[in-house]
């Protein structure tokens, strides 16, 4: 059995973990033997079944069966049934000689049947005796094998326990030695740290006076620097605010100019559509005047309604496109303002 693993954990060598690991290794080591025993038991069971079937066939072949594959009844019952099946009735006036012959044949049959039964009983007892002997021999062999395996397992467990104990003793001795070395090194390190600490304290005491003297000068310098930075930051903030207001004003002026251009373009489109519509109406009137063609009022009204619907649809599309352009422009303007504020927060110096 291999050596048990040593886990790096607080409960690595607890008895429960040790027993669980040992049981797992024992089951794993016993697996081939158990499989061999199961195969041997299956083979012997098949062999016993074949032997029993063979003996039963021999016993059946030694007995004369009737036509219906049944055993003949011994004694008078069989003879009565045979006599009943025979054609014709037996004469009651048979001679004494025939009766004696019948009695002799009966005695011979009885003796033959008795000898046959005794032989069958003897064979059966011999088979049972042999079967019990085989079973006892198999059980004795199995018990001996199990005892030998148990002895081997106990020997392995004792060897493993001894190896584990020796290993743990070595580990314990090594740990004690390592702890002693650590204590010695710790003491040396503490002594060195105390000496260094005394030197550091002396140096700190000498340096504290110089630091106190320089602290006042540093405080005054920082105060002056903070005042200068504050003035610079206020000036920078005012300049950024003025520049941002100028940029926003320029953007608003550009937005108004863009809106005016869009309105002017829409008015031009509307005027152009109106002029085209009036020109078309004039051409239709001129055509009807020249060709003496009068269109029905229903078709005129329908065409006018379709034209009005087309105009309304065109205006709606123009409004949607204008609103979309304004929304995109506002989004782009807000994005630029956010980027500018982020840049100012991340790149503003002096604050």
Automatic annotation (TrEMBL):
Keywords: Coiled coil. Residues 146-271 form a coiled coil. This is Trichohyalin-plectin-homology domain-containing protein.
């Amino acid at each position: 059995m291999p050596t048990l693993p040593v886990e790096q954990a607080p409960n690595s060598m607890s008895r429960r973990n040790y027993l669980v690991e040992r049981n797992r290794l024992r089951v794993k080591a016993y697996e081939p033997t158990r499989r061999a025993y199961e195969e041997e038991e299956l083979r012997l069971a098949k062999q016993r079944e074949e032997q029993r079937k063979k003996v039963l066939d021999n016993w059946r072949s030694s007995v004369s069966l009737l036509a219906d594959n049944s055993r003949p009844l011994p004694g008078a019952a069989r003879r009565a049934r045979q006599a009943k099946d025979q054609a014709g009735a037996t004469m009651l006036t048979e001679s004494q000689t025939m009766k004696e012959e019948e009695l002799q044949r009966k005695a011979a049959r009885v003796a033959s049947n008795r000898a046959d039964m005794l032989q069958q009983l003897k064979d059966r007892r011999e088979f049972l005796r042999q079967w019990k002997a085989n079973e006892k021999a198999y059980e004795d062999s199995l018990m001996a094998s199990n005892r030998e395996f148990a002895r081997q397992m106990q020997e392995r467990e004792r060897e493993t326990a001894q190896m584990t104990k020796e290993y743990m003793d070595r580990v314990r001795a090594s740990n004690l030695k390592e702890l002693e070395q650590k204590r010695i090194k710790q003491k040396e390190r503490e002594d060195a740290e105390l000496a260094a600490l005394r030197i550091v304290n002396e140096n700190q005491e000498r340096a504290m006076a110089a630091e106190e003297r320089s602290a006042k000068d540093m405080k005054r310098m920082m105060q002056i620097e903070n005042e200068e930075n504050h003035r610079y930051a206020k000036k920078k903030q005012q300049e950024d605010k003025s520049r941002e207001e100028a940029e926003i004003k320029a953007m608003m002026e550009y937005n108004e100019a863009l809106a005016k251009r869009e309105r002017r373009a829409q008015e031009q489109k509307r005027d152009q559509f109106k002029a085209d519509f009036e020109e078309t109406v004039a051409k239709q009137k001129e055509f009807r005047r020249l060709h003496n063609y009068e269109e029905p009022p229903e078709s005129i009204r329908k065409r006018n309604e379709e034209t009005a619907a087309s105009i309304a649809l065109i205006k709606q599309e123009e409004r949607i496109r204008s609103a979309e352009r304004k929304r995109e422009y506002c989004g782009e303007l807000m994005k630029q303002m956010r980027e500018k504020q982020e840049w100012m927060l991340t790149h503003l110096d002096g604050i």
